[in-house]
Amino acid sequence: MKTLSKVLSALLSAVMLISLSGCWNYSEIDDMNIVAGVAIDKNKKENNLQLTVEMVDTQEGMQQSQASFKMISLSGNTIFDIARNMISLTGKKLLWSHAKVIILSEEVAREGLIKVIDWYSRDTETRADVFLFVSSEKNAHEVLNLNSETKTIISYELAQMMNDETFTSTAPVVQIWDFIDKLESSGDNAIAPLIYMYEKNGQKNEHVNGTAVFVRDRMVGKLNGDETKYALFAKNKIKGGVLEVENAKGTPTYSLEILSSRTKVKPKWVDGRLEMQIHTVTHTGLDEAMSAEGFAGEETIQAIAERAGESLQQNILSVIRKMQREYHADIFGFGEIVHEEMPRTWRKLKDKWPEEFTGLDVKVRSEIIIQSTAKSSRTIKLGD
Amino acid sequence: MGKEIIPAGQSTSIVILFIIGSSLFMGASGQSGNSSWIALIIAMALAVPLILVYARLHVLFPGKDLYDMLISVFGAYFGRGLSCLYIWYTLHLGALVLRNFGEFSKTVALTSTPMIAPMLIIGLLCIWVVNAGMEVLGRSAKFLLLFTLAVIFVVQLLSVPKYEIHHLKPLLDSGWGPVFADAGGTVTFPFAEIVVFLGAFTVLPKKGSAARVLLRGVLVAGTIITGISVRNLLVLGPDIVSSLYFPSYVAVSRINVGDFLTRIEGSAAIVFVTALFIKVSLCLYVSCNGIAKVFKLKSYRSVVLQMGLIMVYLSDFIYMDIMQMQYFAYHIYKIYALPFQVFIPLTLWASAEVMAKRSSRKAEASQQ
């Protein structure tokens, strides 16, 4: 009896050892294709969607000093169907969890984004922290195709660009979950960065600059890089970047580097009308003075700061006006602020917020503080 | 075989892990959006009187568990009938919790592994620990609690940079109605589920204070759950939280410390498993204990394996899919659980008080 139980337990352990150790659905990395980025276009011929995928090539990557890539493209009716059918082109399953960017063509964006991004946020193979772009070129896959010129993995380059975007602030940084968050919340419209192809001296590069403006999930318009910067000011999303300042005669002379910025938006009732009061405080450093006039007369630091504040004030106001008049898109989240600060008012305004936003009174007050003048205490002096 | 007694610290650990068990996965139920944390606090306050009733039962019947109480108060037949109900409840609850874990692993962690595989592994582990006895369970709970608290605390700290305070505003957006509805639901799931612990009251020292163990457990667990739901709200916002099956998992996946510490949600999920392990084990123990009491077995150990396997199998076919699971957990369970958590214990308590009065009067009479 005792030996029997010993034999049985040994057998049982052997079975457990084989069946419990290791992984159930084990797959090697070289049996997978690592996806770096995705471009989604409209396929006009068949009136469906076209998915282009940039993949990291693992086989050659070991020998060469730079990573290599592969591209494939396929059309179909639903995104997931295409994603799976790609196996019939590559022979390997695609590994989506390392993808960094998703680029949508303008056409797709104008027709509504929900149908193309739902799979990406729902599926468990993908991660929701990929960067979202709208291609201003005709086709989104052209941007990915730039890799044959630049010899780099474009998707990872774009991701890096987004990480460094805080130094320029000419495009919003948007990840997919963030975008969906904006779609779901009322009183806030979504935005996404725009991507262009930039050609100079025969060398093509990708160029991220500007904003695509959405109403619900449809793209309705664009902002250029400068307008984006001022829109980000109104959204309190500025972390860095450069402000140009004119001298007293009106020529751009000074550059201020933004060190930190804070924006406060307050809704207020003024004479029976709702008014948004925006107050920005920006700490900057003077980093460039293209003149030899010294900081005297009309060009004292104080005067420069005041002039910068005034022009910032006007620029922010004009981009808000543009949103109100042209696109009727509350990308600044004013609705949400009203919701948070005045819940009772919001209940009344909620259903007609788009119209309400268009007629909203906005007051902007910008304050610029120049903290430093970098290494030099004065402008370059001209000797005689 | 002597009676197993475990110290108060260990039973408190069991209570804490038991209560946070499935809420760590599922989050608290929510129609109340960004005010769900208020609902949690109210629910915690509402649970306190119930818990005092449970604890009072221990004073009235020192050294007895739920089944002894039911049989001695309601008689051999009716008492056994009620005991059978509790056996079902604990078996079912254990299966539900296992299924939560199964769905979790199927949905986010091990997507191509059949759900039964991880559930069976955990189930076998629970069978093992229950077979080893409550002392082992108590000691492991105490150790696992420290580990769980440490992980939760670290994760909480790491998510601070992702907090967006404006998600909590405006306070009470949808008014008090949904908050109270949620509070009601949250009392039954997870707080008052601790009624299961009545079935293991024999492990408390006879003179020990059940009230202290239960209250401390519920308060600590409530604080943890509130902390976690506030974190989920702050990180994800009420709109996203309501669309997710496992909000905590997604909230943790947002953590990104300097592009270096990322994708830690898989490691954070380990605390779900530890808490769930305690919860399923306690359910299994209590249901086996019930069978032993109803059928007058010498020891509950002879049915642990069978009940455990039944529990695993039940959890496999109890729902068709995850949508059903969510519907049951948030809409049906709060009504289904009421008799087990409120009506039967209250009746038991009331009759026990009457009986105690009578017997003390009798004792007085005999003294005179």
Structural write-up:
The complex is a heterodimer of chains A (384) and B (368). Chain A has 15 helices and 13 strands. Chain A has helices at 2-20, 58-61, 79-85, 87-90, 106-111, 114-122, 140-145, 147-150, 154-163, 176-184, 225-234, 301-327, 334-341, 343-349, 353-358; strands spanning 32-43, 48-57, 68-76, 93-95, 101-105, 131-135, 191-200, 203-215, 218-223, 242-246, 252-270, 273-289, 361-372. Chain B has 368 residues and is an all-alpha fold. Chain B has a single domain, classed as Amino acid/polyamine transporter I (Up-down Bundle). Chain B contains 15 helices and two strands. The longest helix of chain B has 34 residues, at 76-109. The chains are: A alpha/beta (384), B mainly alpha (368). Chain A binds chain B through residues 20, 24-25, 124-125, 127-129, 163, 177, 180-181, 184-185, 336, 339-341, 343, 346, and chain B through 107-108, 110-113, 117, 121, 166, 169-170, 173, 236-237, 239-240, 243, 250, 253-254, 256, 259.
Give me a quick take on this structure.
The complex is a heterodimer of chains A (384) and B (368). With 384 residues, chain A is α/β, with parallel strands linked by helices.
Main β-sheet description of chain A? 9 strands, mixed
Distance between the termini of chain A: 112 Å
Can you count the beta strands of chain A?
13
Summed over residues and divided by their number, the pLDDT of chain A gives a mean of 86
CATH topology call of chain B: Amino acid/polyamine transporter I
Q: SSE order of chain A, as H and E?
A: HEEHEHHEEHHEHHHHEEEHEEEHHHHE
Helix content of chain B: over 70%
* Number of continuous helical runs of chain A: 15
**Amount of beta strand of chain A:** 25-35%
The CATH fourth-level homologous superfamily of chain B = Amino acid/polyamine transporter I
Shape of chain A: globular
- CATH architecture classification name of chain B: Up-down Bundle
Q: Secondary-structure element sequence of chain B?
A: HHHHHHHHHHEEHHHHH
> Which consecutive residue ranges of chain A, at least 5 long each, have pLDDT under 50?
none
> Uncertain segments of chain B of ≥5 residues (pLDDT<50)?
none
Strand order of the largest sheet of chain B: 1-2
Tally of domains of chain B: 1
Biggest interface goes to: A-B, 20 and 22 residues
Q: What percent of the residues of chain A sit in helical stretches (DSSP H or I)?
A: 25-40%
Describe the main β-sheet of chain B briefly: 2 strands, antiparallel
Pfam family, one (chain A): Spore_GerAC
Domain Spore germination protein N-terminal (chain A): 26-195
Subcellular location (chain A): Membrane
InterPro entries (chain A): GerAC_N, Spore_GerAC-like, Spore_GerAC-like_C, Spore_GerAC_C_sf
